[in-house]
Q: What sequence folds into this?
């Protein structure tokens, strides 16, 4: 038996008691509103009575069906499946069951025929809310309204006599630290902020950021002067603008060289860094012409690309072979060509690395 669960849901495996041949798999799902347990029980045909063997005194003088129904009702379980789950020409039985003791948990359920087994599939939709996305937070003091003069004035009113009367140095230090922390909380309280998951720019260093800020301030001064190009603000802005542009150009060159020479990055990772992972619709192929045929649908474009790249190697090999015959060259390019001082090392390409749209070809 297998239980598949979404990665966004938290769960834990539950230990279950052995039951003479029955297969039991149980988990506890940690849902946002309330937790619930999910049990899968498979009772092989040869052990049909093992569930109630330990309750013979309770189930005396009862049929097999009555024994099972009594066991479920004692635990407030209700069976929801009322459609046959195993059908033959001469018989139909409800043999695959779905029990619950919480009606609000099961949103809907149905029985569907499947071709891989003589048992039908019992599907149910569990009514749980999607877990809220968690964010990284940072707690630090807020000094935006901090007044140094009032802070030091309040610090002068400390009752140092109480500190000096302490029995030991450690107690005096703890008392002084507590007073300073309490006073700081009044003028610079702690504030928790959510950290933005903004993608960092590989070439944007601290020096470049400072130049960009200074150039922006200089431009604002030039705007406040009424766009007067004879003013000193215009000269200052031009100087900072040129320094900023030169710094950005040099930083981009240095960052690109560092990425290209990094042996820990694969070729596809380098391409992804330069190109980015933004999947705008501008990069989507709307139309493709292949062998005098124009394709506009996704499946036609994908099939034509697959056909081209799967046959281009053979075509190039034939062209190279014919060229070598014309030049009276013995090599027919039946073996891989080798170039001096050249090494090709490509890692495996995955859809995760490319982050591309998948087209499934029938």
A:
């Amino acid at each position: 038996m297998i239980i598949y669960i979404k990665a966004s849901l938290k769960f834990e495996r539950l230990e279950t008691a052995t039951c003479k041949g029955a297969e039991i798999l149980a988990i506890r799902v940690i849902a946002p509103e309330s937790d619930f347990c999910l049990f899968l029980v498979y009772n092989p045909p040869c052990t049909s009575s093992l569930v109630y063997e330990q309750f013979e005194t309770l189930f005396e003088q009862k049929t097999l069906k009555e024994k099972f129904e009594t066991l479920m009702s004692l635990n407030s379980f209700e069976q929801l499946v009322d459609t046959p789950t195993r059908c033959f020409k001469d018989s139909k039985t409800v043999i695959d069951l779905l029990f619950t003791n919480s009606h609000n948990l099961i949103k809907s359920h149905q029985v569907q025929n499947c071709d891989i087994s003589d048992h039908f599939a019992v599907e149910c939709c569990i009514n749980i809310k999607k877990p809220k996305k968690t964010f990284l937070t940072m707690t630090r003091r807020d000094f935006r309204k901090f007044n140094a003069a009032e802070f030091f004035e309040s610090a002068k009113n400390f009752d140092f006599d109480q500190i000096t009367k302490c029995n030991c140095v450690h107690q005096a230090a703890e008392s002084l630290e507590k007073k300073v922390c309490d006073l700081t909380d009044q003028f610079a309280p702690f504030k928790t902020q959510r950290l933005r998951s903004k993608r960092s720019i590989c070439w944007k260093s601290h020096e470049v950021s400072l130049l960009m800020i200074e150039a922006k301030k200089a431009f604002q001064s030039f705007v406040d002067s009424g766009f007067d190009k004879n003013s000193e603000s215009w000269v200052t802005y031009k100087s900072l603008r040129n320094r900023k542009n030169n710094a950005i150009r040099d930083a981009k060159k240095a960052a690109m060289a560092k990425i290209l020479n990094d042996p820990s990055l694969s070729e596809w990772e380098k391409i992804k860094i330069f190109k980015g992972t933004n999947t705008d619709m501008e990069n989507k192929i709307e139309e493709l012409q292949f062998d005098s045929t124009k394709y506009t649908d996704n499946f036609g474009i994908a099939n034509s690309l697959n056909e081209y790249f799967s046959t281009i190697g053979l075509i190039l090999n034939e062209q190279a072979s014919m060229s070598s015959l014309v030049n009276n060259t013995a090599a027919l390019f039946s073996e891989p060509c080798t170039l001096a001082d050249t090494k090709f090392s490509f890692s495996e390409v995955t859809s995760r690395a490319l982050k591309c749209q998948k087209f499934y070809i029938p």
